Amino acid sequence: MDKKHKKSYHNLSRKNIVEIIELLKSTYPDASCSLDFHSPFELGIAVMLSAQCTDERVNKTTPSIFEKYNTPQDFIDMDIETLENLIHPCGFYKTKAKNIKAYSKKIMEEYNGDLPMNMDELITLPGIGRKSANVIMLEAFNNPIGIAIDTHAKRISNRLGLSNNSDPSKIEQDLLQIIPNKYYKDVNHLLVWHGRNICTARNPKCNQCPVAKYCNYLNN
Ligand code: SF4
Prior knowledge:
Blueprint: H1 3-7, H2 14-27, H3 40-49, H4 55-68, H5 72-77, H6 80-87, H7 93-111, H8 119-122, H9 130-139, H10 151-160, H11 168-178, H12 184-197, H13 216-219
Helix pairs in contact: 3-7, 3-9, 6-7, 10-12
This protein binds iron/sulfur cluster.
């Protein structure tokens, strides 16, 4: 977080928050999850692969894998070198392969092959942190109970003054306190889309931003 963000936290009213969300919804009417998957299990793997990698790259890598391997037992049976080679394009392939193997083993041994449908158990799965568990709850189980704080959500929350924290779990708690529940699903998608398209890490396009008038980044 830069100095500008640290000292500029301010309180937006609930009405302001809803206006921001509605403006972003109008700007990105098609905002949705951009990872491809066919089951909660596959989504868990796609989310793991997306760490330090673009969703586009993940979506180019996973179809040929999931065509052949799509159950926990498939990944348990696969030797790790084969898995490393398959996921190599997504980077950090050694750690990711190890996590995918451990994730598959735990799902098979403790959950009979199906992902648990709650946050508390999801975050105990190897390779699945709170951000990934939030994505799974929303996209696989259609039950958005939190907000996934990725690099975009973190940056925009700080810039807009929705949170002055840098720790993702604290940012999430700040957002959950000010955003009405009915918008959790939208906000999960909108922050990512706004971060990719306008509120980019470098040189944000503030002159095109639909929520500029609320923004802490500009007003301090
Ligand atoms: S005004 Fe600029 S910094 Fe603020 S949310 Fe919009 S693009 Fe991001």
